[in-house]
Design a protein that fits this description.
Layout lengths: L2 H10 L10 E6 L3 H14 L2 E8 L10 E5 L19 E5 L21 H10 L4 E5 L17 H8 L5 E5 L13 H12 L13 H14 L6 E5 L1 H8 L5 H8 L15
Parallel strand pairs: 1-2, 1-4, 2-3, 4-5, 5-6, 6-7
Helix pairs in contact: 2-6, 6-7, 6-8
Length: 269
């Protein structure tokens, strides 16, 4: 092949693609059953590098890819200096009950309901474009301040901050079924409701790890969808908890398509 042919061929070929910059994520609320499960899911997915977590004191960790960011109750309200690089592309604020599984969890920042707006403002000033606010995975574990969800004014104020993506993830709850028309069916439903051993496992409280995988997948896919504010309802979170891999469900929900069906586990008699 002549030099001219080589030159013409080079002109038609596409330049080699440059590797994209790794996405970064930050978690506020990495302690507790749900918060720690969210951290594990984000680290296992390897879609973000690094995975940052807010801590109230120095935290030594051997987990590869985990980067603690030390703040205090006042520090999150202080505007950063000009020229500071964005702290993360995506951030998650996880509300959860405190647990004392080990002393290290006490080092993680534990957001309270009244901390939503101060943390959200700080994250927005630090360059975060997508924010996911996660309520406890089970309604039974909700603190009193979150029994009815976050205050509507706080949610509206968070939406007004200007995040490209904002998602509120509710506590998982199984869909309620309509009351049967036949009295015999209603009687059978009542008997089954009283006998816990005969209720399908899908009706039991969901596990934190299941919800964490849904939340992590949601954070991954938010980067490629139309900007906006969304609310993941309790039924959606419950549905995701029934799946081994929630990726298809998350993709369908974000694209406003029909959700895939979930096959409930068989009842144990």
């Amino acid at each position: 092949m002549s030099l001219l042919n080589h030159a013409l061929r080079a002109g038609r070929t596409q330049p080699p693609a440059t590797p994209s910059t790794p996405r970064t994520v930050l978690v506020a609320g990495g302690g507790g059953a749900l918060g720690s499960a969210v951290l594990e899911a984000l680290l296992a997915g390897r879609n973000f590098a690094p995975v940052r977590v807010l801590a109230t004191r120095a935290l030594s960790t051997a987990m590869q890819g985990l980067e603690p960011i030390v703040v205090d109750d006042i520090g999150i309200d202080v505007a950063p200096e000009s020229g500071v690089a964005p702290i993360a592309d995506t951030a998650l604020i996880v509300f959860d009950r405190e647990r004392h599984a080990n002393g290290r969890e006490l080092a993680f920042l534990r957001p309270a309901p009244q901390d939503l707006m101060p943390i959200a403002r700080w994250l927005h000033r630090r360059g975060v474009r997508a924010l996911v606010v996660v309520l406890p995975h089970s309604p039974a574990s909700l603190p009193d301040a979150l029994k009815s969800g976050l205050a509507n004014l706080d949610e509206q104020a968070a939406a007004a901050l200007g995040f490209e993506q904002l998602v509120f993830v509710r506590s998982a709850q199984a869909p309620t079924h309509a009351r049967a028309a036949q009295w015999l069916q209603r009687l059978a439903d009542g008997v089954l409701a009283q006998m816990q051993m005969m209720v399908a496992s899908s009706h039991q409280p969901v596990r934190a790890g299941k919800v964490a995988r849904f939340v992590a997948e949601l954070a991954v896919q938010l980067g490629g969808v139309v900007p906006g504010t969304r609310v993941a309802p309790p039924e959606l979170v419950w549905q995701a908890a029934q799946l081994r891999d929630p990726a298809a469900l998350v993709e369908a929900w974000l694209a406003a398509r029909e959700l895939p069906e979930v096959s409930a586990p068989r009842k144990r008699w």
